[in-house]
Specification:
It is a single chain. It is built from three helices and 35 strands. By secondary structure, the protein is mostly beta strands. The chain has a 16-stranded mixed beta sheet that branches. β13 and β14 form a beta hairpin. It is globular and about 75 Å long.
């Protein structure tokens, strides 16, 4: 995950931030629960707690939306930091030494499925957010005390005990994902509108954002911020947690509603309502951010013992017709943009399909356990484009992959827009299907390797298809590949063969005729019926 600080899309967001996402903030065992125990966090001296809503007029998502729509009529005012210099100027190592005390987690002493911990501001987290906790539509700001945190060397704890925290950098929710007596990290909101979640058996990988504005355009990219969260206090029988968030940016305001349900596949049902202040060149809905450094389909120049390094290996799209598209990711030499025009797509996502540890050989990062993230659209999304942005990188610390939906309807000043979608986070987020799926893409130089007659302008593509209705076909089955080659390339050779494990491999040798990207499209058919998803590939000068 990246922490946006400036106009650079390439700002490193990981920077060893295991500290911010679990390595230094472990989960917590279930605390003994005392009858009538309440969360009574001591408030800083002189701190005031705001209250939003009342029993007569509860604060609802509609009320938040109306508030944000009204705010959009006002000029944007950049936030002024309320942090003391000793906090704002914390170094990476100093900030990393401040840890939330698990015993201070909200709702820890109560029967329920959720705990909340906060992130300390400072270092790159100079813009804070406020957290309101509510019941029955009445929300009261929770002001975290300095004693909620532990200050480890090289810090002097006495320098922080008298500081007031008007806001925090973000927060995370814990829930029992692996076993009933241990509260694992479930979802983290930290940095602008970034957040990420886990399903059972996964480790943090790709991130989501509330919104992307002017990503990969000639204009400066904006990073909208969640400035306040309104969280319904969970009740003992609740299997989900409800969170509202207000968003502010130079170009718009927004109201977001998240309903988060943990599980093998964790779901976040999302409603976002947007109110542009100004006309926006490119509005990215449901943006996903991931990392792809190298994999099976490209030959890395890195001297790395690991065969593959990536949080996601492909973009998956389900069209309105039900056709499924699979586009393997690349680490290009120059910025690469791909556009998929759709009308009411059923969904799209950045997936990690390859779950074989031997393909990564990384015992620490465990890329084989990074979650996939699928966006299922809800309601009428109309016409638009799914955009894939691939940014060159030479480091796995950089999130260099972005995907989002760009509506055809322009975001103009004064217009109200709403989008609803369901996010699926987990090891497997794809529905069962009779369609064979792409299980691997392998690319190498063309020509006859045995005779060492390599053709520098041609490439051999080996595409493996697994599962579906073709899995049990005999080796002599009459499968028919449908191969679309653009005008700037030509097909030299094609063959289809059975794989030892029951899948099928389509091998293509293709020659390019100019230096422009070659967009390839392949699927399998039998008896005039499509029997596989559609494989898409952008062959650039590097691959």
């Amino acid at each position: 995950m990246k922490i946006p600080r400036n106009e650079s899309r390439r700002t490193t967001l990981k920077l060893g931030l295991a500290a911010a996402f679990g390595a230094v903030f472990p989960g917590s065992l279930v605390a003994p629960r005392k009858a009538g125990a309440q969360d009574q966090t001591q408030q800083p001296s002189g701190a005031s707690k705001a209250v939003v809503g009342s029993q007569e007029k509860p604060f609802s998502f509609d009320a938040l939306s109306a508030q944000m729509q009204e705010a959009a009529k006002q000029d944007y005012a950049a936030p002024e930091s309320d942090l003391p210099d000793s906090v704002a100027n914390l170094s990476y190592d100093q900030h990393r030494a401040i840890r939330f005390r698990p015993e201070q987690a909200l709702w820890r002493a109560e029967a329920g499925e959720f705990h909340l911990q906060a992130f300390y501001p400072g270092w790159v987290f100079k813009d804070t957010t406020k957290i309101f906790i509510g019941t029955g539509g009445v929300y009261e700001q929770h002001v975290f005390d300095a004693s909620d945190f532990e200050y480890r060397p090289p810090l002097d704890p006495s320098q922080f005990q008298s500081l007031n925290l008007g806001g925090v950098a973000g927060f995370r929710i814990h829930a029992p994902l692996q076993r009933p007596d241990y509260f694992d990290e479930l979802v983290t909101f930290l940095g602008a509108s970034y957040f990420r979640a886990l399903g059972t058996g996964t480790r943090y990988g790709l991130s989501a954002r509330g919104l992307a504005i002017n990503t990969a355009t000639s204009e400066t990219e904006e990073f909208p911020r969640f400035t306040a969260f309104y969280i319904d206090q969970p009740q003992p029988a609740d299997s989900s947690i409800r969170i509202m968030a207000e968003m502010h940016s130079q170009s718009l305001t927004g109201a977001f509603l998240f309903v988060i349900a943990p599980g093998d596949t964790t779901t976040i049902e999302t409603t976002c309502r947007l109110y542009p202040r100004t006309d926006i060149t490119r509005l990215g809905i449901a943006p996903l951010t991931s990392m792809y450094t190298f994999g099976e389909n490209d030959h890395s120049d890195h001297e790395d013992f690991r065969p593959e390094v990536h949080d996601s290996d492909g973009l998956f799209i389900v069209r309105a017709t039900g056709e499924q598209l699979w586009r393997p990711l690349n680490n290009p030499e120059t910025l690469a943009l791909s556009y998929f025009q759709e009308s009411n797509p059923r969904g799209f996502g950045l997936l990690q399909r390859d779950r074989d540890f031997s393909h990564y050989q990384d015992t620490e990062a465990r890329y084989d356990l990074r979650p996939s993230l699928m966006i299922e659209t809800m309601g009428d999304w109309g016409n638009g484009t799914i955009e894939l942005v691939e940014i060159p990188t030479d480091s796995e610390a950089n999130d260099n992959i972005v995907a989002f939906w760009v509506p055809e309807e322009k975001a103009t000043a004064g217009k109200a827009m709403e989008f609803r979608y369901r996010m699926l986070w987990g090891l497997s987020t794809e529905d069962p299907t009779l369609m064979a799926r792409v299980s691997g893409t392998y690319v190498g130089i063309g020509g006859n390797a045995a005779e060492a007659k390599d053709n520098p302008t041609s490439r051999r593509f080996a595409i493996n298809f697994q599962g579906g209705s073709i899995h049990n076909l005999p080796p002599d089955a009459k499968l028919e590949p449908q191969v679309d080659i653009p005008s700037n390339a030509r097909l030299l050779d094609s063959s289809l063969s059975r794989l030892p494990d029951g899948g099928w491999r389509l091998s293509l040798e293709i020659e390019r005729e100019d230096s422009q990207p070659v967009e390839l499209r392949v699927k399998l058919s039998m008896l005039q019926r499509i029997v596989s998803e559609t494989w898409l590939y952008q062959w650039t000068s590097k691959t």
